[in-house]
Batch of 3 targets.
Target 1
Amino acid sequence: MKFIIAIIKPFKLDSVREALSGIGIAGMTVTEVKGFGRQKGQTEIYRGAEYSTNMLPKVKLEIAASDDIAAQVVETIQATANTGAIGDGKIFVLDLASATRIRTGESGETAL
Amino acid sequence: MKRILCNTAALVTGAVMLAVPALAAPVAEAAAEAAPAVAEAAPAVFTPTAEMVNKGDVAWMMVSTALVLMMSVPALALFYGGLVRAKNMLSVLMQVLTIVCVAALVWFGWGYSLAFTSTNSLVDPLFIGGLDKAFLAGVNPGTFAATFSNGVYLPELVFVMFQMTFACITPALIVGAFAERIKFTSLIVFVVAWLTLAYFPIAHMVWYWAGPDFLPTAPDDYGLLWGWGALDFAGGTVVHINAGIAGLIGCLIVGPRLGYKTEPMPPHSLVMTMIGASLLWIGWFGFNAGSALESNAFAALAFVNTFVATAAAGAAWAMIEQIAHKKPSLLGAASGVVAGLVAITPAAGFAHPGTAIILGAVASAICYVFVTTVKNKLGYDDSLDVFGIHAVGGIVGAIGTGIVADPALGGQGWIDYTGAVAVAGEYDMVGQIITQCWAVGVTIAWTGVVSAVLFLALRYTMGLRPDAEAELGGLDISEHGERAYN
């Protein structure tokens, strides 16, 4: 099993979610986050007082997937969240040691 | 000037520049109607009666009164509240609301009497009134207040209330200068003392006069600046310069916010600021057009000027930002709107709409420079730009009034009330501008000294600031024990 963490632009969330549903991903966790990378921050000006924000809002997706589908998940996110501009985000893949469904106690891939 | 000889025409807040008694002699119409039983030899004693009250005027003035209250709560409270950080939102709302409550009570107690009487003056009737009408003694549905027209009166209670709303909003304007770092109880003590020692005397000096039917027989019965001939239609000096200078002194003595210039302090909700600015604009129609004291063409002139000068100022600020940063901001446009409202206040009933537009745009540009550049260069922390917008815009408006009131530019000039029937005075633009500058100077000096003494006295007694931990945690929790957003 793999644990996939993707940081994407917030406005891409809906299309990524739909694309992942299309390849059989039944659930994910979504968090609004802030961070910085190579994309420059924005400048805000309030009556002449300039504030540069170097932390930009992003969305973090967390998805647990079986080994056979994990590569396809990564490809789908990469293709869907891509705008070609700096700041599109990153995808990280980790090995997942176990998964347990709380309601039934099932574990392993059946719990996904 | 068609209204020169019409004794029922509404006459704007003009000035009695030269109290030449000879002017009063030839005409005695108004006196004749008023005192039928008095012997011909003695000068008639004018007595206003209920028949001189127009129900249309009364209705308009009561609506205007409510509109001006709306400028304080909620408009100013939301305008300011949106500009502070979320942790200080309630402190600003609470300061404005409480100041309105306290000022209304002080106005009832001694404010009206000190501002709008001249008998038994505490010092000198040129500077302040007496206590004859303290706690509204003798004011009842059977007493009347003068307007700007011969033989036209308001119930005195209406005038008391209308002016009360001005006394409520003026000290509330000041809190923006030291928002996010003031001790609440000290602020309220300051407001009571400042109203008494700065607002009431200045209101008296600028606005008090005996009225068009009384001045001919009491040619010295007016406040100092009125007597000089200073023009201030709705309170550029009394309200805006007064509050703006008090704010500047306050923010200098209180000191900057912790973290000023080192950490970001962006407004927490420009949505609320937009709502507040818009309601201010609406309420300002009561403030300016209501200051005609009658429901007539001069109220309409003030109304249209309040509309177009403000529109020009809002557009001007946005255009300047478009040029300077390529991005016109909402806060900029809203700031321009307020700057325009401030600037047109003293000129509202005098200017032609065309010159009002120019005045609004010029004031907006000058305020822009003060707010964005001068403040940063000098380093004072006038958090919400009370000085940069209200004092600066007020000064531009007060001096500009001397220009736009000139009948040669379509203005309304000034009115000579020393005769039995008011007539238009001869307009001297240079002389008027000099008079306006004197009025601005007296206001700045008076309120500057009073504010400095009061703030320093409080700083060394009750203290002006909460401790650092309270300020960093936010005044909502430390001063009021609640949060704006849960």
Target 2
Amino acid sequence: MKVQSFELKPFTEESLRILDEEGRQVSHWDHGLTDKQIVELYRLMWVTRLLDERTLILQKQGKIAFYASSAGQEAAQVGSAYAMEPQDWIYPSHREQGVFITRGMPLEEIFGHFMSRSLDPARGRQMPGHLGRYDLHLITLSSPVSTQIPQAVGTAYASKYRKESSVTMTYFGDGGTSEGAFHEGLNFAAVFQCPVVFFCQNNQYAISVPLNFQMATKTIAVKACAYGFDGFRVDGNDVLAVYSVTHYAVQKARSGQGPTLIEAVTYRYAPHSSADDDKRYRRPEEVEDWQKKRDPIKRLRLFLIRESILSEKSDSELLEQLKEQVMQAYEIAERSPHPPLASFLEDVYAEEPWFLKQEKQEFVELYQEEYERGEK
Amino acid sequence: MPSLPMVRAIRDAIRTLMLLDERVVIFGEDVGKRGGVFLATEGLQQEFGIERCFDTPLAENGIIGFAIGMAINGLRPIAEIQFTDFIYPGFDQIVSELAKFRYRSGGQIAVPVVIRTPWGGGVKGGLYHSQANESYFIHTAGLKVVVPSTPYDAKGLLIASVQDPDPVIFFEPKKLYFAPREEVPEGVYTVPLGVARLVREGKDVSIITYGSLVYVASEVADKLYPEGISIEILDLRTLLPFDGEAILASARKTGRVIALVEAPKFCSFASEISAFLAENVIEYLQAPIKRVTGYFTPYPYWTDAYYIPTLKRVEKAVREILAY
């Protein structure tokens, strides 16, 4: 295998990569990570996968109503979020459990959110997957697509206005690039030279709609050209390449050189959500092909073993330990109570207006017994 | 104390806020160098710099989303939408995002954004520079909605809105931008949100209204006063949250209520007033509630003066409600 010399170029049709599918190093792109940090990326990807597997079971058992799986996209999520500093702001999108885990949201809070427990910072108000922790600079997401993009630009503007060095990153999918908010956000970022990174996880489908019905451009990265800044296409299942290109974009933003668009080419293994049937729009062989040949965790594992950074034995010990950790977090969440019944009538305003106070009082009186039992 | 028209009082409010608080920034289309199409931000870019008062690309979703992100990161943004008729591309940001951030984050995230926008008809603005579209916003939990009718109130309400911890849609009746004038104190003062203003006391009929129709109601009251007809006028000022106690008190007192708005009748704020009175004080009412409103058409250009309730229509309603 020939290892290529490396120069970071925007707007390539080929995806940038460091590792091939077999975990062999194929470029001289210096990621700057220590062995310990690479093992940490590996650990975070596994935690994301294991949390996902556990949650899919919970959904099938009827313990949570709805779930959007992150499996297959761990390298794109973990690698990008790992390139940010704690003071940096993140506006996530759907199925980004890897981003939340990498930023340090405790697993029991994530499970607590999925099961609408009091551990959920959103107090059980949102569908599973709509997480957020303001103190961790993780902004609670909504379901409408791409609304977060101009918001992220505004947050970046505020950092620049105060002459702070923090950078904002916003995530979205391939379908999200068709929304007006995507184009407006990129244009604002360019006009005001905001310290923001636009991170697109191109997983090939917007629910069922494939890329060729979403856009006629060869890549998503090329769209940045129209706004006057660089776009990079990266192999989204190569965690080292994802980290490296994001790190470059974050440092560029931090040093006042404006926005960057990153397209990470990846694939989701599960249907869009627990309410979707993906057999209607993609062949099982296609899914199998990605799972068997291009899995992001398997790829990094092959690299770690080959480079003797991790032994087979320590790898299996690590996996056992992580399974235990995920199970324990789930158990803590399950033992915790739901938020108080009438709490859904709070947090609409800083101070409740008189008519909402009346509605709350009527609700509590009507459902007094259920209220005291703390029912969901 | 200077005598100012509403648009200058609004400019004064913004300038006062910017002097007081570095977190306050203002932006929108033509807001910077031009100073706004109605000059509400005239000279502010020169005084405070291009980082604090600036033009944006022509994109309302972008402008409002941008404001939300600024507020999340500690600023106190005022976003101007050039006419409320052009706010719809930003409707998603207002309804799905701005209104819901506090709730959906479990109370973690406040979004103190103020959206200022010229509103209402009576200036020959045709379909797209005349709308009174407040109902779309009043229906949304999480927002506050304000419509001033005097220069004094405009300044005090705008300062209160920017200092409020929740998002406010601030509708400015453009028909009142340049007249009447009123003495407006310099420096900081606030008019509290959620409190109506009793424009004049009366004992026979209550007219509950807001915006430029406060003046139509006053003309009718002046005209009918010599006949011994005593009209009470309530200017709501804030529509969300509205001053329910003031509405009920006036209805109990006169027993005859006219709800007067520019917007078309169906699902208008006049309808909300009507339902609210029927639910709470029907035993005090001596005649059916009347809603006097705009027509159920798009806003017309040539017949502009006939679309918004006129003195003639309001007078007719008063006579009918008294004859019941």
Target 3
Amino acid sequence: MEWADFLQSFANGLLIAGLYAAVTLGLTLVLGVMGIVNFAHGEMVMLGAYNTFWVFTLLGIDPLLSIALSGLLLFFIGLFIYRFTIRPILNDPPLNQLLLTLGISIFLQNLAMILWKTDSRSVITSYSGMSLSLGVVNVGMTRLLTFLIALGLTLFLLFFLYKARPGKAMRAVSENNTASWLIGINVQKTYLLAFGVACALAGASGALVSTVMYTYPMVGFKLSLKAFCILVLGGLGNIPGALFGSLILGLTESFVGTYVPEGSGWAEGISFILIMVILIIKPTGLVGTRRE
Amino acid sequence: MNRSFSWIKTLFPAFLILLALWFPRLVDAYFLHLAVTFFLAMILASSWDILARTGQVSVGQAGLFGIGAYTAALLFKWIHLSPFLGMLAGAVISVIVAALLGYLTLRLRGIYFSITTIAFAEALSVIWLMTPGVTGGAMGLSTPPLFGGDRQQAYYLILGILIFCLLVVWMIEATRLNFAFTAIRENEEVANVMGINPTRYKVLAFMISAFFTGFAGGFYSHYNTYIIPYEVFGLGISIACLVMPIFGGLYTITGPVIGTVIVKVIEEYLRVTVSYGHQIAYGLILVLVVLFMPDGVMGIWRNKILPFFKAR
Amino acid sequence: MSLLEVSGLTKHFGGLAAVQMVSFAIDRGEIVSLIGPNGAGKTTIFNLFSGVYPPDAGEIRLDGDDLVGHRPFEICRRGVGRTFQIMQPFPHMTVLENVITSGLFGRVPRVPMKRVEEEAMELCRWVGLGGKMGVYPRNLPVADQKRIEIARALAIKPKLLLLDEVMSGLTPTETTEAIKLVRQLRERGITIFLIEHVMKVVMGISDRVIVLHHGEKISEGPPQRVAHDQKVIEAYLGEQIDNSEESSC
């Protein structure tokens, strides 16, 4: 029944796109506000995932409830990282910033290996196996909840950026930080807050990740690459672009998984191939960039 | 770019080479093996540095390493090609792939180039995993022990390639290539207006770098007798390629060598203390270097230690 | 035949016309200045000449050969040397090495390293950097950095030298020296095309002046004639009035 397969594939793609979008939000925020590509963003997600796993395993708290916990934890970790490693290199050439954040990424990946070994962890809740029937399509309960929460996170960020004072400051700084400084915005504080919020978002999405995927030290690296792919697809540093890119990636992976023989294996490579193809054809990304 | 103490510069390396040649008679199998891994790492570090001299910061050298490794292993599996020829073949195929990749990525600057190289290595990894019929997939490929297990021969082979690699770097520094590479790295647009063809030199650097990285991969597959995609196309290799020269001092001959020695010693120490995650040192070193010693060990040598001697 | 012939040169950025149907010629041995209010399109013309980007329309002929569509290094090797408004010496090379670099690659046929080195040292001395050849550019004052730019451009033995605002930021003494240098360059047989804001210089050394405004050529001729051209006066005054209106808000 081709139509049903298509719809199911579409639905799965949509759901996973929501998760990818949540993961990419923070990366987009930092890039937009500070112009830095945080190679360690994936590891913030990884830490959020592990945090959720341990809180669930040791304290029995439901993963989707402990999102706030992961968010909070990563917020403070983000502040710490910003203060001691990012702030000193704000004006360094981009390559230095790449190497520094790459260093943090490697450090955290290996730290996770040392602390928690390389086994894949799963978070299985009472509702993990449940699914909802929406007409012809079956939707996993966890995936649906994850999608809804991811949507919520996105709306929260948009609300924050457009209605809250610190958020508006971030938007101003991302447009023009000299002008912002001239009108009295504390650019340094804005950067600090933006980085913290970005890591908090990463941590929160990590909680989501833990319910839908396996949690292991390298999961952050995998997600980082998907996030880069989304950036390249949707434009660097803008949120609607990130949503658009997430949709493209999620749907492509899903359709490849359904229609290509052994597709689920090949789907993993979609993000890499998209990155290479797009950048080679259009060196500044599909939509181009407002800020390099 | 300075010339001083030239007598040390010729005598010291000569002394080191002699020491290296005598080395196998002095130590047992364990240290011989360690030396081989050190030399292999130095080749990777040096060849990464060659590419970096044109401003192309690759975080995906594992792609070329893995291609070299699998070329050698597959050619052995299919036609029983001798190990040395297999390594050469690995080097050549790597060069061809690098030339192609180099052309395709010419317009990519800075981190876009780096991201593309990461994607390149990961894409290869996925392709390998999905084609087990041809490549052996996740199960990997085996080869018989190199030179029948004679560690000494392996040692001399890799030492020879290392010396060859360092000679190539020395030649680059001694000729107009050095000016071209440096100019492109510092300001590609201005270099272009000054008469330098960026395409030619960027692709050339990529190809030279790939030759040694690919050869190293081919050597590794025979020496290790077993390779899997996760390892030879893995991020760990790509990171190793860059941490050592960055720590030791970029755009120098000795920087990558010294960087490798120090980093590898730390790594080996960690390897016996923790089973996984010994590359944690790599991450820490990268962060510390960027924050506190951007010119690496050689930078400290040049700026802090050497002036003491010159002051006399 | 003129050394340089430009016809119908046009370049748009986004929707804006930076250069619009500009045509002129420069004869061998001339010193020609390109002037105009800010944003008139002067540096765009230089960039079009050196091949940094292609024009949307028009021709640029050097000794009859069309330069359009060629890459910067090819144009350089045909004998077009240039300096940059924002000085960009290679930071990790010494003064001498900077000059050697263009000498090595900007000339056809290739010259052996030894001779390039000797000629580079000569050039450094000639522009007044004789004692500073081993110094790194970041440690040098503005005037010296401009000398590096000029020496670097001269190392390719150009037919046409494009000087982009070399006189800005110089003291009166330095300006006089710079003018002397430009005249000596002409005596060496090099044709010079300058972008300049410093009117004293423009009036003093130019054989001819070309005036650009909003991307179009509005006047051309000997300096005195151009200085009294009503259109030119309006263009500059117009800018001054605009500026004073803004500042009184």
